[in-house]
Automatic annotation (TrEMBL):
UniProt keyword terms in alphabetical order: Membrane, Transmembrane, Transmembrane helix
PANTHER family assigned: INTEGRAL MEMBRANE TRANSPORT PROTEIN-RELATED (PTHR23526), MAJOR FACILITATOR SUPERFAMILY MFS_1 (PTHR23526:SF1)
Coiled coil: none
Family annotation (InterPro entries): MFS_trans_sf (IPR036259), Sugar_transport-like (IPR052528)
Protein name: MFS transporter
Gene3D superfamilies in the cross-refs: MFS general substrate transporter like domains
Database matches in SUPFAM superfamilies: MFS general substrate transporter (SSF103473)
TM annotation in the entry: 62-82, 106-127, 133-156, 177-197, 203-222, 263-281, 287-308, 320-340, 346-365, 385-403, 409-429
Organism: Actomonas aquatica
Taxonomy, superkingdom: Bacteria
Length: 438
């Protein structure tokens, strides 16, 4: 066996705590032989994109950037729902095309390259534009980024299901989140040390160019995955395919229950901008505090994602329900804070700590639902599940973002209460989900 194979086998076994690197469930014999290398390639590619996501995050970096460029507040309200929903809505139609491809990694490669173009565009806007024009340009680039992200989302789950054993998928996602979190902490520390009180557009431009380079590197790594040809049945007209796949919500109760629970969990991510808004009002909006929150977010993923991932391989249902319960509790605490006048010193501790805890809960929700969705289906059915669930969630994100955004103008605690109640309801309904991890 070549020396590099020995090295990848050893590292794979170390990361997964696996005595036998060839223990495979729900993948072909050919794919089984390539598991160690494919595990590390996907880990590397997704770690780079995970770090890029943190460096160009609309909840933190883009929000700070729009304020620095003097863009109207309307654009701040648009970027988060647009980024999330835009990547999910088209997937029902993309799936019909994807099912015709025997090898699907190239869809991810193209999507990652397009995301690099969009993020480089953010940097160009930061360097050359300001005000309303800058806001419009950023929103347009967010839309491009979001569509490209959708390509990666649907392709990655299919490639993951074809190349990684059933009991190792959660750990791959967990290690990805952890490693990208570690690197994000380092990047955040650099911003903290160099950002100053007010930050600099030149600094943010460099920050975004680095993020764009990360997506390009990831696309190169992902292209080397050893993916064997798979099923290609069920392709055809996108509209016909979309209508047929939507029947899953009527005919497939376990899948319908999963989509319901996932929909109730969206507050774990959408509530973050409200917490950042509260912190912004209490702590100020300079580059120093942006660095702090990026570090906190990265640290939350670093310490929690490997644990969530290992637990998800045992029971992704339990992980999802637990993380939703934690989310509901933390949002209730946040609501309570809005009625308490905190001293400056206490606020400087409480808000980063709260953001850290919410980051842990959100990591659990993401890993739980992703692992559950990949494990509950095989072959082309997985592609349909991913496409339908993501498209439905995309619609709900736009609706939820609009409603809670309007509610926040009246009462921020009321908007947070909606998310808390939804998370609690989802935790309770989660008992209806069948176990799929074993």
């Amino acid at each position: 066996m070549p020396r590099h194979a020995d090295w990848t086998d050893h590292l794979y076994r170390s990361l997964t705590n696996e005595e036998d690197a060839r223990v495979c469930k729900a993948i072909s014999d050919d794919a089984c032989r390539e598991v160690p290398g494919n595990f590390l390639r996907q880990l590397g590619a997704q770690t780079f994109t995970g770090l890029g996501d943190r460096l160009a995050n609309p909840k933190t970096t883009l929000a700070w950037l729009l304020q620095a460029m003097g863009a109207p507040g309307l654009f701040l309200a648009l970027i988060v729902p647009l980024r999330e929903a835009g990547s999910l809505l088209p997937q029902l139609f993309i799936a019909g095309y994807l099912r015709q491809l025997a090898v699907r990694k190239w869809v991810w490669v193209v999507g990652s390259a397009l995301q690099a173009v969009a993020v480089a565009g953010y940097a160009l806007v930061a360097w050359t534009l300001e005000g309303t024009i800058a806001g419009l340009a950023i929103v347009g680039l967010v839309a491009l980024f979001s569509l490209a992200r959708g390509l990666c989302s649907i392709a990655s789950k299919d490639v993951l299901g074809k190349t990684i054993p059933k009991t190792r998928r959660g750990q791959l996602s967990g290690w990805k989140s952890s490693l990208s979190g570690v690197m994000a902490m380092g990047a955040g520390a650099m911003l903290l040390l160099t950002g100053g009180a007010d930050g600099s557009l030149h600094l943010y431009t460099l920050w975004l160019l680095v993020a764009a380079a990360l997506w390009l590197i990831a696309s190169i790594i992902y292209s080397t995955i050893a993916e064997f040809p798979g099923e290609t049945s069920g392709g055809g007209n996108a509209w016909t395919h979309a209508r047929q796949r939507l029947r899953l919500l009527v005919d497939d109760r376990p899948f319908r229950d999963f989509v319901t629970v996932r929909a109730l969990a969206i507050g774990s991510g959408l509530s973050a901008p409200f917490v950042v808004s509260l912190a912004h009002g209490e702590l100020g909006g300079g580059g120093w505090w942006l660095g702090v929150f990026i570090i906190v977010d990265g640290f939350a993923s670093m310490v929690s994602a490997p644990i969530w991932g290992r637990l998800a391989d045992r029971s992704s249902r339990t992980v999802l329900r637990t993380a939703m319960g934690v989310t509901a509790t933390l949002l209730a605490i946040t609501i309570g804070l809005t009625f308490i006048e905190l001293s400056a010193v206490v606020a400087q501790v409480v808000y980063p700590a709260l953001f850290f805890a919410l980051g842990i809960a959100h990591s659990g929700v993401r890993l739980g639902r992703k692992t559950y969705l990949v494990d509950m289906a095989e072959g082309d059915q997985r592609t349909d599940y991913v496409a339908v669930s993501n498209s439905v969630i995309g619609v709900l994100l736009l609706v939820a973002g609009t409603i809670t955004g309007a509610l926040s103008l009246l009462s921020l605690p009321l908007a947070l209460a909606v998310f808390a109640i939804c998370a609690l309801t989802g935790m309770l309904l989660g008992h209806r989900l069948p176990e799929v991890s074993a």
